[in-house]
Write a structure and sequence with these properties.
Elements (H helix, E strand, L loop, with lengths): L1 H18 L3 E3 L5 E3 L2 H30 L6 E6 L2 E7 L12 H13 L7 E7 L3 H10 L3 E6 L1 H5 L6 H4 L5 H5 L3 E4 L2 H14 L7
Parallel strand pairs: 5-6, 6-7
Antiparallel strand pairs: 1-2, 3-4, 3-5
Helix pairs in contact: 1-2, 2-8, 3-4
The chain binds zinc ion.
């Protein structure tokens, strides 16, 4: 599956380089110039989907290993994955070992720096206030998440993860781009909860 995504990304990248000067003649004879911007949007979408898929894979992996809840996060620097992590609350006996916090700690260690201002984070689910705080403190420039917090709340996770943050000044003033995945990215991320809920005990 992952191989397919990588291939698609490469194909789209090469299409983009052609699309700037691509003249298209439609069947009715009208001629138009393909928009490079539209191609760029597709490449960004595909790139986001590729990394979000890895975060979702981590969510499944964490439950399969018995390490914690069904949450995954990936930190990306210049199109390269720095770390991919999952929730480690049970394994580490640590209520703060959420996927995003774990990924930020590991990425900082690996890059040997306390700022991740050139990095993006992909989270399988909307970050809770603690993780959002950690993302803010690490200066990560962009957050992409899959499932809405309500999908986790629906299977029993604490509803503070949505209510405490949205609409607050903290959320609005954070200096990072926040994108919620749509389409297939949102679907695969939200499926995680239904597919794993029988495999772990709520903590
Ligand atoms: Zn969290």
């Amino acid at each position: 599956m992952l191989g397919v995504f990588c291939l698609t990304f490469d194909v789209l990248s090469s299409l983009l380089s052609f699309s700037c000067s691509l003249v298209v003649e439609a069947k009715d004879g009208t001629i138009s110039v393909a928009s490079a911007f539209a191609g760029h949007q597709e490449v960004v979408q595909d790139r986001d989907h590729k990394f979000l898929t890895q975060a979702v894979e981590e969510a499944y992996k964490g439950v399969d290993c018995g390490d914690g809840g069904p949450f995954g996060a990936v930190v990306v620097l210049n199109d390269e994955v720095v770390v991919r992590c999952h929730n480690m609350v049970l394994k580490d006996t640590d209520p703060t070992a959420h996927a995003e916090v774990t990924a930020i700690r590991e990425a900082c260690k690996k890059l040997n720096q306390i700022e991740l201002s050139d990095c993006e984070i992909y989270a399988s689910c909307e970050p809770c206030p603690m993780c959002f705080g950690a993302i803010h403190l690490s200066r990560i420039k962009r957050l992409v998440y899959g499932a809405k917090a309500e999908a986790a709340i629906a299977i029993g996770f604490d509803d503070f993860i949505a209510d405490a943050l949205r609409g607050t000044g903290f959320y609005q003033k954070a200096h990072l781009e926040i994108k919620r995945a749509d389409g297939n990215g949102a679907i695969i991320a939200e499926e995680v909860f239904e597919k794993t809920k029988a495999k772990f005990h709520m903590y």
